[in-house]
Automatic annotation (TrEMBL):
Pfam families: YceI. It comes from the Bacteria. Gene3D superfamilies: Lipid/polyisoprenoid-binding, YceI-like (2.40.128.110). The lineage of its organism: Bacteria, Pseudomonadati, Bacteroidota, Flavobacteriia, Flavobacteriales. Residues 45-221 form the Lipid/polyisoprenoid-binding YceI-like domain. This is YceI family protein. PROSITE patterns: PROKAR_LIPOPROTEIN.
Length: 223
């Protein structure tokens, strides 16, 4: 019975480890900014449709998760023969919205905290009064392990870092859609340190995880 019990424990540990690895599958590693890609003359240019483009986010802490969205304000993507050649888009940080809470149930307070619109909490997260926009500029697109990997410089709170994540691209007539798989970034790479146990060692269980999960949907039409 003891042997069976030990074997069960080992199986549980293996299953837990495997699950953790799967969760980390699309974890990005932020590196130094790279040269922005340029499109050839023959490329077709698409202009973002803000009303149909968005970034979904998820943040977590020991007591649970929060989810939300932030809007893509503008952007362009150049495509040649179905392949992305270059592009960039601007993110309106003033549109940070919390979707898992209802109005009057903490939604407004959390949105204000994330935006930094509370006087003594301006620098806790994104301080949108000082940094109203974030930006993403494509540096490379390549195929890896059967997936299309998009690399680009993400500028957030004035810090520019290069990240890569898997995307799906479709062209239909005059329309273009780019959809990423969910991926994570480490917020501390961009100086968003509030509540991070990797930065502060006295938080106990009152920390906020460093990883933020993102999922990008960019819809565009021919310019």
């Amino acid at each position: 019975m003891k042997i069976f019990s030990n074997f069960a424990v080992i199986l549980a540990l293996v299953a837990f480890t495997t699950a953790c690895k799967k969760e980390k599958k699309n974890e990005t590693t932020a590196t130094e900014a790279e040269v922005v890609a340029e499109a050839p003359v023959a490329a077709v240019k698409y202009k973002a449709i803000p009303a149909e483009s968005t970034i979904e986010w998820k943040g977590s802490k020991p007591t649970g998760n929060h989810t939300g969205t932030v809007a893509i304000e503008s952007g362009t993507v150049s495509v040649k023969e179905g392949q992305i050649e270059s592009g960039s888009f601007i993110i309106d940080m003033n549109t940070i919205t919390v979707t898992d809470l209802k109005a009057g149930d903490g939604k407004e307070d959390l949105e204000a905290h994330l935006k930094g619109s509370v006087e003594d909490k301006k620098d806790h997260f994104f301080d949108v009064a000082k940094f109203p926009n974030a930006a993403f500029e494509i540096t490379e697109v390549k195929e890896a392990e059967g997936k299309t990997m998009l690399s680009g410089n993400l500028t957030l709170k004035g810090v520019k870092k290069n990240i890569s994540f898997p995307v799906t691209v479709t062209e239909e007539g005059d329309n273009f859609t780019l959809t990423s798989e969910p991926f994570t970034i480490n917020r501390t790479d961009w100086g968003v340190n509030y509540g991070s146990k990797s930065v502060f060692d006295n938080l106990g269980d009152k920390f906020i995880n460093d990883d933020i999960e993102l999922k990008i949907t960019l819809k565009a039409s021919k310019a």
